[in-house]
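Onboarding guide, step 5: your first structure request.
Type a short instruction followed by the sequence, for example:

Predict the 3D structure of this protein.
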Amino acid sequence: MESSCSGILSFLNEANYSLTPILREYAALKGLPYYDLVEEILAARPSLPISPTKYEIEFTMKNYLVNEPQAAAIIGTSQNQGFSLIQGPPGTGKTKTILGMVGAFLTGNAKPGSTSIAIPGQQSITAPPVKSRLLVCAPSNAAVDEIVIRLIGGIRNARGERYFPKIVRIGRSDGINPNVRKVTLDELVDTRLAAVAPTSQKDELDEQVLRNELNKILDLRNAKATEYDRARETGIGDFDTLTRQLRELNAQKNQIGAQLDEQKEKRNAMIRDVDVNRRHIIAAILDDADVICCTLSGAGHDQLAKMKVNFETVIIDEAAQSIELAALIPLKYGCQRCILVGDPNQLPPTVLSQAAAKFHYEESLFVRMQRNYPKSVHLLSIQYRMHPEISSFPSKKFYDGKLIDGPNMASITRREWHQSPLFRPYCFFNVVGGVHERGKRGISLLNRAEVDVALSIYAALRGQFDHIDFDGKIGIVTPYKEQLRELLKQFKQLWGNDITNSIDFNTIDGFQGQEKDIIILSCVRGAQEHGVGFLKDVRRINVALTRAKSTLFILGNKEALKGNHFWQDLIVDAEQREVLVDCGPNTFSMAIPPRIRASSGSAPKAPRAMRAGKPDDQAMAELISLRQVSEAGKKKAPLTIDSDVEMKDAGDISDSNAAEASDGEMMNDVEMQDISQKISAKSSKEKRKKSTPTIPENPTSSKKVKKHQERNDSEKVCLVFH
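The system replies with structure tokens like these:
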């Protein structure tokens, strides 16, 4: 038993895994019977939304600079007790709504004209004002820091004035964004301690001077003692002088030793005072704070638990991404009002245990309450991120058509490349003929044909619009790690290692919370009889479909995907809107730039001859298909992709059935965060054993798309021969 426990602890230490969050969740569960909101939690019963008046809406919109749905959410949460649910689809301003709620809670009710009326004949008793204090939490450090950065920039108070609340960020400094470090508890405490005890550095300097002087005296005394011994042996020397010098040196040594003892005692007293001062300073900082921000687990920190203060109001951001036990931790401080902000139609909490998932362990408190009381949710219904053509399908499929576009979103997100029939704001490229295959580890999948199409799209954009700087504007996402490895390998081989500075490659999970001008989504699945695997998780697909601001390209096999009801609806929608393109090997061949050999350095521009529209004979001869470009000079460069939750090798799976879960895919294959910071490449001489499948032309292409393509190609051919 002891060896088993030690083995588990050793594994946890090697994996840098902490049991602290689990212990805090367990403590919150044990303390649940003593919570003020215990009945609402057990019954999953949120408060019903309040219908504000038109005057209240206009008042709040003006003072907090928010739109109508955001104003309704601010008013409803500030006037309600218990749990309030705010659903914020992508781009609808969840963080801005949170800032408005913070301003309303700290500086007064969002309801205008509220005054106190004295009773005639009675003396009014003025009670000391109770300081309003908020606890703002989120499941991750990144989500918390995003709110803190916005709070540091200032918020609006109930009168519409700029207001800077006192913020304290609790958490480990190594996991916190450097931009918010100045408001962390440790930094604030150290600053005040330095002001309280400015002489500590001087005392340390004095002690060092005394030690140096003592060492000199000891060296001199030893030299005199040696001289005295030699004089006694030889009988030559002034014994009286040497004796007097040794006596004086011993006296000086004793005097400096006494001074050092005094300094040591003073230092020990100072340390004791610093510890006492630190505790007092921590209590003062937390007591003086307006907003305390931390992760859900960080809300169980001892420093908060020791405070003699309650948090009547708790705001939890990304509440749909936290398990219910984690959401209980910040509610133990006398919480009477809890606002859950999130979107249950996006990523769920990360739970690796399939056994736990069977018991709905991954279900959030937000989702459980919404399921019981679907009409209790405040929906932020105006989005300011996506082009209307991109937001159209997610609005209909995930939000019952209630997600509408902000003013002028079509013109705001219009781009020059939208004039091309292939590069419209929203397009599904049907990659026919491509099949998926298992990666080296035998678990994750890749689709080389979709990789080639992604290469073609990027090359065509660079070739046709070379005057546009695409750096940092493109993201390529996929649900499979092996596809991510292949994408990175091929893009680096063709465009150089620095291509990762221009394009953000990531899994869908790793791209949560981000946005790009152009998103290329590689679905990978290419065999109808094998199902759609991870693609059947519509919440993840919603994340992928809502990351793009101006342009979204979906790469997939129509026949393989339409066996799933969700993908069937998406494909039918694309066909009805005439944005489905049957993609063959020549779809982008006339648009790609001449062949470029690049093994390192920044991604190269298209050659000058092609950019000018007057290619010479050499450029024209090099106008070859992307398949030839990607195959020529190919080297095997295996990539290692590390992540916080790495997928398991086949040899690590103890249960044979687990490997076949979800159409043969392991769920943790897609649990990959911050991957862009941990990707490294190595080169080797091993050659590919399997040939890459080609993409045959589909004769059933849309007539309209063919007509645009033929016209586009004919124009380019005329330009070339001109």
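Each response can be followed by summary notes, for example: The longest strand covers residues 548-556.
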